[in-house]
Each structure stands twice: as structure tokens, then as C-alpha cells.
Amino acid sequence: MESVIEKLDAAGLRKTEIRIRLYEYFLKHKPAISQPELEKKYAKYADRVTLYRVLSAFEEKGLIHKIIDMHGTARYALCNEHNCHDGHHHDEHVHFNCSNCDKVVCLEEVSIPSVKLPKNYKAVKYSLNIEGVCNDCKA
Amino acid sequence: MESVIEKLDAAGLRKTEIRIRLYEYFLKHKPAISQPELEKKYAKYADRVTLYRVLSAFEEKGLIHKIIDMHGTARYALCNEHNCHDGHHHDEHVHFNCSNCDKVVCLEEVSIPSVKLPKNYKAVKYSLNIEGVCNDCKA
DNA sequence: TTAAGTGCAAAATCTTTGCAAATGT
DNA sequence: ACATTTGCAAAGATTTTGCACTTAA
After folding, report:
1. Separation of alpha carbons B76 and B89, rounded Å
2. Strands (E), A37-121
């Protein structure tokens, strides 16, 4: 639990109850979660709007990163400490969307292969979503 | 103009004014377009709800396919005739999102490279969005 | 104390649904 | 004539904004 306080401190964020709860959530759970899902879990602890604002603050400070999943839903997951910093994310790994349990996980160990684009196209950022059946759901 | 009528016929869709207009739009424009954008262009010709329904019908019949762009917005573009049929889309090419002009185009000639997933993950569908500067916007 | 954070109300989007009226075949 | 398609009204879902109140430091 030390780490939660330290991280919020390091990010220059005040250590409020909801922020501590949410950051602990991200530390404990790998799958990327959406605001509506968080709202169900944390309705008693914070207003919907506060959740949106905490997510934005966490993202700006490099604590979590935003993923757009295959359905177009915005989801958030903990940043890899070595890759993400203030406002600058390196999120260039595969995001796996399970069609069975609907979880979206970062496969940090699977990087996005390079792609040869036509002349005059300049790539800056990549997003590779793969849909299928995940580790937990395979029979 | 022949081709528009024929395609709608072949898809088993009635040839209404708005459907003809929209299908002609897709034939003439490569970039994928969203419903809100179409609404601005076609406000005089059809209701918002009709646009949603025409897009769904076109997608079901394999005339257009849906793309989720890097911002999570649903966009639609013409299907490649050889790859898409009734309810069955093969959309496994790169989608390029230009951060300058905000256009999203299908790079049909750039296929998604294969990715080696960890044991127990089974891939079914891929979506690769690349953000950067497009052909038209490079200085 | 005071700047940052939160809650509430309200609005802005985007999308879906139901039903009556209009249209294509 | 009849099934399909459309328009309108309404509701649901997601996200943003403004402002007064509260809380961390």
C-alpha cells in the first residue's frame, strides 16, 4: 500500500480517498476497464463525473493509459513504469479483446510488428487490437 | 450510375433516394465517414435515424464495412467487392488515421502482419489503426 | 488558508427503439 | 396491395462543463 501513496505523490496528485481506491484497483487488476464499469463498482465512493476526472488526471500524469477497444469503448489500464511518463505514453503493444469474457488485456510482451506504409504516409502511433479467445476462456 | 442501382438490387435493398445518394457517396469517396459527418451533409435528404438505419443495412448486406478509428468513432467505407459478402467482412488491412486532416482511409494494399500470441490466446479478428500524416497532408 | 478536488445539475453527443405515415415493387 | 422504408418523438448511454461546497496540504 506504500506504493499507492508514493505514486500519487510522485505524480503531484492529492491523495484523496477515491484516487487511492482507484489506483489500488489498477494495481490489482490487469484488464483494461471503462468508466461505466468503474461507475458500477465505485458508485458509493464517487460521483460519475469524479471518475471521469480522476481517469483524465491519472492519464495525464502517466499512471494509466487509454485504450480504444474493438467496440470503440475507451478503457484504461496501468502504465508500464518504464514506458510512460507525464503526458507521454508508449503503448505500442498488442491489446487482446476476448469475445467470450469481454476482457481487454495489454499483452506487454507482444509488440506491434513494423508495417511498411505507402510512400508519403508517415506513421506516428500504432494501435493493434486482436479479438479472440483469451487464456482464461479457452476450454 | 448504373452500378449503384445494380448493387442495391443485388443486395436486395429497395432503391430509395437516400440509399442511392449514400451509396454514390461511398463510391466516390475513399475516406471512411461517420454518421455525424453524414448527418451534416445529408440533413436535407434524410433524418438522422434513417442514416443510422441505412448504414446498418449497407453493412449487413456487405456494401460497406465499419471501422473503429483511433478516437473510438465508428466510421464506414466501401467494401472491397472480392472480400466482403452478406454479413461476412474481411477487413484485415491497415486503417490510416491522419492527425492533420482527421481522415481515415483503408490501405487495402497494406495487410496486417501476423503476430505471435502467447500460448492459449486464440486470435480471430485483427484491427490495426495507424495514426500519422497522410499522403495529402505531407508538406 | 487556499488551491485542488468533488458533487450536483445541466447540457452536448451519439445511438437505439416504437409506431404511424409514406414509398417502392 | 403489401411489405419495406422513413420520419418523428422519445429515451438511453456516454462524456463534458459550470459552479458552489469540501478537503488535502
Report:
1. 13
2. 64-68, 74-78, 93-98, 104-111
Residue B1 has a pLDDT of 54
Question: How many angstroms from the chain centroid is the CA of residue A120?
Answer: 31
Q: In a structure prediction context, what are the per-residue pLDDT tens digits for chain B, which is 139 residues long? A: 568 999 999 999 999 999 999 999 999 999 999 999 999 999 999 999 999 999 999 999 999 999 999 999 999 999 876 555 555 555 689 999 999 999 999 999 999 999 999 999 999 999 999 999 999 998 7
- The average pLDDT across A38-52 equals 98
Using a 10 angstrom Cβ sphere, with 0-12 exposed, 13-18 middle and 19 or more buried, the burial of residue A18 is middle
Considering only CB atoms, which chain A residues are within 8 Å of B93?
Answer: none
Domains of chain B, first to last: 4-132 (1.10.10.10)
Would you say the C-beta of A54 is within 7 Å of strand C? yes
Contact B70 A68 (CB under 8 A): yes
Hey, which residues does B111 pair with through a beta bridge?
Answer: B93
Residues 6+ apart with CB under 8 A from B40: none
User: Which one, of B52, B116, B102, B62, lies nearest residue B85 by Cα?
Assistant: B62
B63 is near strand D: CB distance < 7 Å: no
User: Which residues, numbered 41 to 80 in chain B, qualify as contacts with chain A under a Cβ-Cβ cut-off of 8 Å?
Assistant: 68, 70-74
